[in-house]
């Protein structure tokens, strides 16, 4: 049945785009192909236009994020990318799933650099400032040849904005009935030197989910970042730093959890020739968590700390007009500390060094091949080779792509060494126990896709299969020697995720644009033949946008342009499991949908000072499904006021 659905969908897609191609014999004016001339880097390590990258890449632009009123990365992903689901969990860390796989299989990068996980090894996505984002690039499937361990399910790369004017800046204030945000940035450029400072602050009120016992804890956070860049004729350099602080109120404000994150990075780039560039970079991401007991003399306990540092040397060489080679070496160092999750309070360490290379060969007939591999030597698990092969064939308005790639993920330090007594109140129901005999997880990802590119239409369909071997899960066992119940990490699962992704973007009647996507993911645990917990087989997103260059009765000028955006998101029922005395019960959550509306109005203030105002309503139909664990607060509103120069 699944195969028939794939064949039918493919046939409809090819028929529709072929008919459209026959309607016009004119050559496509590539200057009008909106969004597809954007430059992306995630799939190849080098700049490529979106429509000509051999690795199918999805992009959420700065304009998309602004038009939707999104205040966080998860909200932006959910608004525009089907197959993304988010479950908040302030105790264990928020969980994101893409194509049936959760956080630990999704590699989150900022400007190509890996982010370290927090106390539960999940990246705290609240620390990302969307106001400073130029675009978000998403690649589904295994990408270990370029990015090493953990790039099994998806790679999400957040590209930050550059300074491109002598003086520029912006500020925005957003007020809603539960989340308030202030964003600001300022930058300047003097000849070859530029500087950018960005600040963000969020304040979330507590809210309850109707019909459930879930109460979201209030929190406050802020972040500040500084970037310096120098760009000469051959030498370029940059240095950047970021600090983030979040305070979560717990236990009716009698206790708080304070998280701190600081990042330091630097990069040197030197052009040996017009065709050969060397890049040396270093980045260190640090995340600390503390408990502050307000009713216990304000004592503070440093609860956990994580650090991930990377050092990389890359050489990009355009050997000929049709052949490019990218290669290099990389060293990664990581350590974690927890005062109550390990059998001692010593830090746990791991490291790996890598050699990688990827060649890109273009033929005159429109065929392009991308072949790469990475050798990983891990301090605990030795050597491993991870290859990938991508093919693309260009034919006028069509792009056909095929990909087979290997993914590799070493067990985390907590999966290896955890020794955690899990208390609930005064009770001790179980221990979470690591396993230093774990084997690395390995995946093979296969995909084929077809894409149609036109001045006002872009449509694509992808069929994929992702098989994961030695998937790590927890088993509940009774340890007679210790006389206790344990949740122990084991290589127990063989998982297979097969599915289909379809996307459509269409501009019509000059001012209208529609954008939609559908994702089908059949995520199966082969050892039990059950769906992976939390997976929604069917997800869809869509929006209709109306853009007008000026208000009625005013001169035609972009200074008074406005934008209306109506969007929706649908997710089919999730499959979840509960375990009691070794007996597993399967439950279905029911479906979940949400819609929103955002009105954006731009207006002139003075000379180059431009303002804008936004009014938005999230969850228009006030839909809340407590069983779905999305924990939406119901219908909410927001207003924002911003200006930029």
Textual characterization of the structure:
The chain is mostly beta strands. The protein has a single domain (2-644), classed as Maltoporin, Chain A, CATH 2.40.170. 7% of the residues lie in helices and 60% in strands. The protein has 5 helices and 38 strands. The strands form 6 sheets. The protein has a 22-stranded antiparallel β-barrel. The longest helix is centred in the first third of the chain and has 22 residues, at 2-23.
Briefly characterize the structure.
With 645 residues, the chain is mainly β.
Supply the key terms:
645 residues; mainly beta; Maltoporin, Chain A; five-stranded mixed beta sheet; 5 helices; 38 strands; 60% strand; globular
Counting DSSP H or I runs of 4 or more residues, the number of helices is 5
Task: Give the low-confidence spans.
Answer: 1-34
Structural class, by secondary structure, is mainly beta
Mean pLDDT: 85
What's the CATH topology label? Maltoporin, Chain A
Q: CATH homologous superfamily name? A: TonB-dependent receptor, beta-barrel domain
Main beta-sheet strand count, sense and barrel state: 22 strands, antiparallel, barrel
CATH architectural label: Beta Barrel
Q: How large is the radius of gyration?
A: 25 Å
User: What is the β-strand count?
Assistant: 38
- What is the CA–CA distance across the termini? 56 Å
Classify the beta-strand content into a percent band. Answer: over 45%
Number of domains: 1
The percent range for helix content is under 10%
CATH C-level name = Mainly Beta
- Which geometry do the CA atoms define? globular
